[in-house]
Design a protein that fits this description.
The chain has one helix at residues 2-16, and strands at 19-24, 27-29, 36-44, 50-52, 58-60, 66-68. It is an alpha/beta fold. The chain starts with a helix and ends with a strand.
């Protein structure tokens, strides 16, 4: 039981320190701002690029789409 509580607290702390993302996205998602919480659909505008650095953690807690135009 104690391990479940510790795991829950760890998960909560990671979620609170995360960067929430939604809507139009471009540029770079960096390890420095990781983890990223996807809280709604993501779109990458035509002619733009979204780069995700190696090691970036992305949390998706829902049925969201990532659309590149």
């Amino acid at each position: 039981m104690r391990y479940f509580v510790l795991f829950g607290l760890l998960l909560l702390s990671v979620m609170l320190l995360a960067t929430d993302v939604s809507g139009s996205q471009s540029g770079t998602w960096s390890v420095a701002n990781s983890p990223y919480n996807v809280v709604a659909d993501i779109s990458i505008p035509a002619g733009q690029v979204l780069t995700i650095e190696p090691g970036v953690l992305i949390n998706v807690n829902g049925l969201f789409q990532i659309t590149a135009h």
